[in-house]
Amino acid sequence: MLGCSGRRVYALLFALSAAICAFVYVVVNADNLVIFMKNQSTPYWNMQELRPAHLLMNVTVPVPTQSSIQNRSLADLKNEKNTSITEPTQESLKNAGTECKQVTKVVYIKTHKTASSTMASIIQRFGDSRNLSFAVPPRGHILSSRYGFKQNMLNSTKYPPLNGGTHYDILTNHVGYNRHEMEAVIPNATYITVLRHPVNQLVSAFTYFEWTKAVKAYRRGSADLFATFMERPTRFLTGKMKFWWQGHNGQLYDLGLKTQNKDTGKKLDDRVHKYIAVLDRELDLVLITEYFDESLLILKNQLCWSMDDIVYISKGLGTSHHIITQQTRDKLLKWNRGDFLLYQHFNRTLWEKIAEYGPTFEQDLKQLRGKLQETFKECINPLKMNTKDRRERKYVLKTTASKNCLKMSFDDIHYTNIIRKKQLKTNDEFSS
């Protein structure tokens, strides 16, 4: 294996040899030396690039929405600095045409402020259409926002698995990752989650959980509330603040690792790297918010679902418009370094899976985005938005929208209520 320096030297030599057919760009930033090529003729799955984690400076990447679908070509994606991908093996290409078996047992660890509600609704729609059993909370739509899953969080007496089954098929509601307890409820499941770049995720949490109120109370008239927050996050992240535990490595927290506010440096890195190795073994697929559509294609193939199964209508469009300076960004990445290491690792594994997908990836991505555009035109009223919740905006359906549009519009709150009532009614009929 080449070290980091070795890979950079290899990439430079490779770039120089290809100068006739490619433009070579070298971008130096605080985190990495990035070398990438702009070559429209290179197959997407055959790229040989160094792609460090997504680096943002003065903008944040929004949650994917139908209205913001840009039909980016894969040639454009090749110029985005994200991770490294490798050429697919002959074995992976040979297996690409083999038949697969549809996965119906899924545990989805729902992280906060990562487009996780959109992903949850995709899985809920899939399971509901196939009459699969869901492990749902007895009330509301959250099992726990703060604690790991326990079997006693379910009311398996009132809402047992459908048709007298002994185990559930799917879990999608908010609850911390606890593999042992989850395995007892849904054995032999495929484990999925979503991660978002820590800059985008924390800015979204800052707005959605209304931490702005505490900052305003501390420093009235502050021109940059988020920068004030990042001056010393521990000043604000106390038990009095809503969802305060999401302020420090919140994505790791959701996945079962609690980092202390003062835990930084090598001690933190060692803990995080060890835990990432555990997650890498235990999680079957980690989607990336910034590459949501690409992630869904990998999910479709890995779970043997159809293209229609992964079509979606985005839920909860954020209202945050913070401009993040380089200084504030650096503070954030140091403060949430655990989440950044987590994101870097699984962003890389996503692109490795894309590399193994094969030469039809570009065509399949175009097909998916075409279906998303068709869905938006068929279902969504482009002249209206639901703004009842000041923290986020939601799409409004056309009055002529089909039943399929209605199902795709359901968020996890609505779908959880539907599933809970369905399981209660079905099990009452089964036992009578």
Automatic annotation (TrEMBL):
The keyword Membrane applies. It holds the Pfam family Gal-3-0_sulfotr. The chain crosses the membrane at residues 9-28. It comes from the Eukaryota. It is found in: Golgi apparatus membrane. The keyword Kinase does not apply. Keywords: Glycoprotein, Golgi apparatus, Membrane, Signal-anchor, Transferase, Transmembrane, Transmembrane helix. InterPro entries: Gal-3-0_sulfotransfrase (IPR009729), P-loop_NTPase (IPR027417). It is a single-pass type II membrane protein. PANTHER family: GALACTOSE-3-O-SULFOTRANSFERASE, PUTATIVE-RELATED. Belongs to the galactose-3-O-sulfotransferase family. This is Galactose-3-O-sulfotransferase 2-like. It comes from Saccoglossus kowalevskii.
